[in-house]
Design brief:
Layout: E1 2-7, E2 10-14, H1 30-46
Length: 49
């Protein structure tokens, strides 16, 4: 996971899509999305302090 942009109230994160993050049907697993949402939800507001 990489932070691409941070500003007060905003965060842009990126995660590479590798086979280990794909479910059998070729879609990204929910845990990958959950991790991004969790990290973005932390960094966006945290930059204000």
């Amino acid at each position: 996971m990489a932070i691409r942009e941070l500003s007060p109230g905003f965060s842009l994160l990126e995660i590479p899509v590798a086979n280990k993050r794909l479910q059998p049907f070729g879609l990204v697993r929910g845990g990958a999305y959950a991790g991004l949402v969790d990290a973005a939800g932390f960094w966006g507001p945290a930059i204000r302090f």
